[in-house]
Amino acid sequence: MTRVTMDTSSFSSFTPREPQTDRPPRDPAPPTPFISFIKPQGQLWNYNRHKTHEDQPGNIPKAFLDAMSVREKVYVEEQGIALENEFDSDDHRSCHWVIYASVLTTILPAILDPRTGRLVRPRVTRTTSLPIGTIRLVPFPHSAHPRNGGIYLNGLLTNVGDPVRPRSSETVQALQPQEIQGGNRRNSLYIRDFPTTFHNGQEPYVKLGRLAVLKEYRNKGIAGQLVRAAVTWMQTNYTIFNPSPSVLGFDRLGMDVTGQLPKWRGLFCIHAQEEAVKVWERYGFKVDEKMGKWWEEGIPHVGMWLRVPVGKGGHTVA
What we know:
- With about 325 residues, the protein is an alpha+beta fold.
- The chain has helices spanning about 60-80, 85, 170-175, 220-235, 245-250, 275-280, and strands at about 1-5, 35-40, 95-110, 110, 120, 125-140, 150-155, 155, 175-180, 185-190, 205-215, 265-275, 285, 295, 300-305.
- Strands 1, 2, 3, 6, 7, 8, 11, 12, 13, 14 and 15 form an 11-stranded mixed beta sheet that branches. It has a two-stranded antiparallel sheet with strand order 4-5. A two-stranded antiparallel ribbon has the order 9-10.
- It comes from Podospora bellae-mahoneyi.
- This is N-acetyltransferase domain-containing protein.
């Protein structure tokens, strides 16, 4: 979003006036950053993860490309994550938020008459909306919790993980989609996992991630604005990801499964980079000791959780 303006507030062609100084006009105070919301995008299926955001098909929403521009700067350029591993299969089904700052750039400087100091040509400026931060929210279901000691590349486990917590046959069975009593249709939205400190292994949760802010805009409250936006939106729209019996077709089969379908009850999870734990703790998240530590793209991660009330009122993120 770009607009070009001419600073004509002090422009005068022939009217006599007091001599002006040659100091350039002061820039106006930058507007408050604004946040754009991106709902899940089906057209992301043709996003080419081997190319940057600048080389994507024309039908990819610009706001999502803006989000990827920030993620590429932070995760690919700063942290050395492979470009092809930054975009993943969760992006198309996730909600995304992008925060923008208005940046004022001088295209042509003002010209003053050297004898009189009068303004001959006003300065020409351009205000551009620059994406400076992003976050995403992934709805349930999710794959199993990462293994303690696991090494993951592009979401795939490359080692056996923690030998003191092997996957027993009982655990493996618990991770499979559960049969709904009274019919033979599998409900893949209801997946059980091993219990942790803050998760019973069964309750549906949403996952925040890909929180990124450009380096020059950090320590200015940008990350907090993004986390608050995502948490508040989910609190207000707390039923949006709950499966509907009619959509799943159970009503046509004469099945009453209302009490068995998963419902979100205010639980958030993040897979936090270990060095960012204190940042997430400021927003109320707590480290899950039973999840241990694992590596994603060579970076140590831990699990953290936050529970908020749903509906009106609710939790305030610091």
